[in-house]
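Mods, move this if it's the wrong board.
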Amino acid sequence: MYLLTCTSDSFMEIFDNTSYATSVLADEARRVVTTSTKALRDAHSNVKLDMLLIGLLDMAPHLDGQRYVAVALHVAGNKGDDSVVNLAQAWFDNLIMPMKAISSNAAKIIPSDSMTPTIDKTFGKMESATRKDQGRLRSDVLKREQYYCAITKTFCSGRRDDLQEANQPIPTALLYLPMHAAHIILFLLNRFEEKTDVTREMREAAATWDMLKNWSSIDLDTLGPNINTSENAICMNMHEHTAFGRFDFYLDKDAGVVDMIPTFPMLTIILVP
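Not the wrong board. Structure tokens:
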């Protein structure tokens, strides 16, 4: 296993140096990816790691996110193909895959300081979420959405039954289905076993959050119990919730192909440009 040897201080020294324009660092980062394309393609049979790196660079929500990717690639590029590959693999393992397979116990590339430059601060704000407030969360979200699925406008079957029992009017809907409160930022992304020592789960969660924070500028106050509030949830029927959890993503903004995502069989298809 190869790891970048750049420390957090070294990373931040480059990141905070205003004499290095982000656009210049980004251009250099693209050259690093181009130079290491063969090694990146050979490293993973199912994922084009070079496209992953370019996607993270070009599609960062904020300039600071682009700068974060560019500086990390600058550090890796100075150390050769192995470091570039390990950087890409670490981002894939710790930033991308947790959104799809958070429970995986497969071996991962351990992130270095240059990949998680502010992880100490992230640790300080981490708090394990629990499911004790799940019932209240579901109730709050359903009331906010007036018991309709935000995607298909199907109506909550449980609410229909309650209204029927109370002899109240039942809203008209195409279908009546069980409703879920679906987390936008995954609940499991912030669940780890609470112990006094630093567990592997805590380290992995901290690495994921630190990467996500540096790339997207997400507010760290979304950590801990705030991940389980109605601001981080949307009302979905049971079929949409399942489809949402299986949603596939890509980082090419000019893919030119419309993804067809079946949301519940034999009824509707959502077209995502």
